[in-house]
Amino acid sequence: MATWFQNLFHLESRLNALVSGVALSFAVIPVIFTLSEEAFRAVPRSYIEASTALGAARWQTVSRVVLPAASPGIAAGVALGLGRAIGETMIVLMASGNAAIVSASFADSTRTIAATIAAELAEVVFGGAHYTVLFFLGTLLFLATFGINTAGDWAIGRMKKKLGSTT
Question: Is the pTM of this model over 0.90?
Answer without folding.
Answer: no
